[in-house]
What we know:
By secondary structure, chain A is α+β, with helices and mostly antiparallel strands. The first copy, chain A, has helices spanning 10-15, 23-29, 39-60, 95-100, 121-133, 196-206, 247-256, 262-269, 275-284, 293-297, 300-312, 328-338, 396-403, 449-501, 505-519, 526-532, and strands at 19-20, 66-73, 78-84, 104-105, 137-142, 149-157, 162-171, 178-186, 211-215, 221-224, 343-348, 352-354, 357-367, 378-383, 386-388, 424-432. In chain A, α9 (275-284) packs across α11 (300-312) and α14 packs antiparallel against α15 (505-519). Chains A, B: It catalyses: ATP-dependent breakage, passage and rejoining of double-stranded DNA. Chains A, B: InterPro entries: HATPase_C_sf, HATPase_dom, Ribosomal_Su5_D2-typ_SF, Ribsml_uS5_D2-typ_fold_subgr, TopoVI_B, TopoVI_B_transducer.
Amino acid sequence: MNSRASDAPIAVELAKKQKAISVAEFFEKNRQMLGFDSLPRSLITCVKEAVDNSLDACEEASILPDIYIRIKKVDERILSVVVEDNGPGVQRDVLPRVFGKLLYGSRFHAIRQSRGQQGIGISAAVLYAQLTSGKPARITSRIDPKLPAYVYELKIDTETNEPKIISENYDDFFTSRGTRIELSLEATYVRGKQSVLEYLRNTAIVNPHARITLVDPYDEKFVFERACDVLPRQPVEIKPHPHGIELGTLVKMLQSTDSHRLSTFLSSSFAKIGGHTMESICREASLDPGMSPQELAKDIEAVKRLLAAFQKIKIMAPPKDCLSPITDDLLKKGITQNHRVDFISTVSRPVSVYRGNPFLVEAAIAYGGDIDSEGRAEIYRFANRVPLMYQQGACAITHAIERINWKNYGLEQPKGAKAPIGPLMIMVHVASTNVPFTSESKDAIADIPEIEDEIELAVREAARDLGRYLSEQKKALDARKKIKMFEAYTRELAIALEGLTGKDHTVIESKFMEVLSKKYSRFVGPEEAEENGPQ
Amino acid sequence: MNSRASDAPIAVELAKKQKAISVAEFFEKNRQMLGFDSLPRSLITCVKEAVDNSLDACEEASILPDIYIRIKKVDERILSVVVEDNGPGVQRDVLPRVFGKLLYGSRFHAIRQSRGQQGIGISAAVLYAQLTSGKPARITSRIDPKLPAYVYELKIDTETNEPKIISENYDDFFTSRGTRIELSLEATYVRGKQSVLEYLRNTAIVNPHARITLVDPYDEKFVFERACDVLPRQPVEIKPHPHGIELGTLVKMLQSTDSHRLSTFLSSSFAKIGGHTMESICREASLDPGMSPQELAKDIEAVKRLLAAFQKIKIMAPPKDCLSPITDDLLKKGITQNHRVDFISTVSRPVSVYRGNPFLVEAAIAYGGDIDSEGRAEIYRFANRVPLMYQQGACAITHAIERINWKNYGLEQPKGAKAPIGPLMIMVHVASTNVPFTSESKDAIADIPEIEDEIELAVREAARDLGRYLSEQKKALDARKKIKMFEAYTRELAIALEGLTGKDHTVIESKFMEVLSKKYSRFVGPEEAEENGPQ
């Protein structure tokens, strides 16, 4: 066991192998973490990253998005993908890094809802393309109609995680303003539930201000027209909310602030800390509002007291305007556009906070109509207006739905099944300044207790509405059965009573019907009510 | 919509916000990707990363691991975690970066099975600890009994992703050789299925050569004793296998090789390419074995032909010795140690390849005994001898199991349920030189088609054994019923026949029993057979 004890320590030998790994090398080896694990999914991920970028850019520049996607077959293995938008374009100085460097972006530090957050997505698509096709990405961008467009061909140098420019040119004929990316990659175009078309369809539903066009490898053209000409209100960038902020983050903020007094630091660095709240916090934490934040940072115990005061003192919820919910109307429209349903209920929860990040949950439940009634309930997941296509089993949305005992709401849930079965669609949207995804592929929301609880509350609320509807339906069904039964015997009973009372049986019969229609009026449809007697 | 067209292009403004993000900042914001999403899970992740590291280090140094874990409550929020091993220690020069820099490690570039692959895990625990407790990590290591141990207190500077050394000292009294890490972190100690204890129990099962000791916050001590004194065969580092290697990777290999001839490049850079195979490949690809690899790299079409030839020419499977399977015996033992079962079947698949990475799948199915018969089948997942505790719904193991129609194997599977229900345990181990996890938290294996297929094949094979057993059980049950029925009437029949034939009824009866025991011998237990007649 210890045969080497007399030699130089093994640790010396092992240390020689220690080496830094570039983030590009890391993701090249682990591209499944970025959503590139199978050929159909790789295509969806690639389109998704480009479209998300285009939508974010257009909205930041207050432009109604017009996005064109073309997918072509190059050979047996390789597809070419073009995504073109009418966005603001990408400035020349930063373009190579925006597309050719992982962890480079503009939205990472902003506390505001956006689709892209991490500065990884589109560069990951470039990385996957060069890995599988050997070809560089080709990017054309024009930031001003008066200037020519520039065209870059670039790769990512994985050892350094820096862009490697292959060629650089001008293009005078490019659209008046916008960006176009062209990639060649190993991928498969499929149809069905997990497909580019389905992703675009769902994207169009929750982004009705965008026009999206797809030309598929069979030259078939799909256009998702704009349903409205108004941009969604642009989410406002806010300061962090004190609730759930981390000790380490707080220390870092104290160290790096320009404020000289704790009081100024508190009211200028956080959302929802006004003068009064600031004073209460300092008193609760036994801290002098005049003390230096930098000094405070050195005393961990005092910072802990400050953190505890954040939790104890009542602080208003963060402003909703950093978020951009889908809204009831669109959730409803999203479902009814593709389905005829018997019942629909939507719920929008108030803004809540996890780890200092504001978030809100919206949910909709639809039932009946032409929804498939055989299998499990269908779950549609959205995060920051982006449909989530993969990893349903890993997502807090699914887990929250599975925590619910659906029998309580009148639904069927067989032993061992985690979700209800029946003609049911459940749609959940989580909007946040920082959606906590389980991985860089952004397919599933992590099981953050605060978020899971809010999802469960939203879905339960919608499920209660459904439960009431189903129980009404059941009552109505029972009542109708009773009415039918009663009707069947009314004539005979009336005739028998005519013999006993001497009254005309038609009078008795119409009296009976009157009683019936009073008692069961709410279960009788308008025509039936007319047929069956006076109102 | 276009109100800003006359100003400076918006792109110029947007470009100012573009910024590189350090990988430490990224994971600080997205710590759920590293397995730090809830308080109980954060504790498990922290212990797991430290224990995985200890096991890897001990095995690399051929030391039988002896790992001690102590978890203590510091205050309401904070736990302190100590993990100490008898491994080779970490050399002083590299220690700060091993524990204080993400993406720094020794196993990333080695093609060989190991628990750690990414150089992220333990630094992630340090990052989480400093973020939530504000405290640095304290690491003590001794690489030689003749030298003193050194003690570091360090944090990670998230803006640069470099270690920040807080203090540096010697400690003469530390154990003769090994490493100790102490972290303070926000976490919760829980018991039950997803707990530190359960993780250690499962780790001990598949690492019977390790002694693992836990002292929990209630001062209760759990010792998982060594079940064997022999280290598992150390996995051998190999070259990449040509099957499924990526075009981009191949180009990079061609560019950076020292070989001057394609022939030397092929046989020296890949596993399982000998002289004969090399010639066949070159012929198939219409390439001159004498050509320069660097020249070849410039001709993408020619590289594509080489890649196609790799797939077309028969190449031997990669050697098994880069992998370290759990083996049948241990899989069986793993299940029977904690359960009394009626039936168990184990399967070990041959080595296969995805994207050039060798992997193999082992599976075991146990049935009956004291396994809970009410709920869904329990799934136990392992990757490179590490139990996977979270994200079951996101894992290729689960997905492969859900693809199977379990009714075919005599099991109950209600409508809408994806897994069978009944007293069933399914255990799957995936061993690979590069396990494709869905995220850095290494909780779930991505849906790589090659891997999912192999898992399905392994589980199906075990399920077929179970199916045969269950059908035998059913037959035996039916036969026993028949025997019971027959026995009940034998005496009366014999007496009736005595009257007809004049033979003594006891003789007739024993004749009957003889026939019965012959026909149903395999369904009659030894005692019953003795009771019922001659052998």
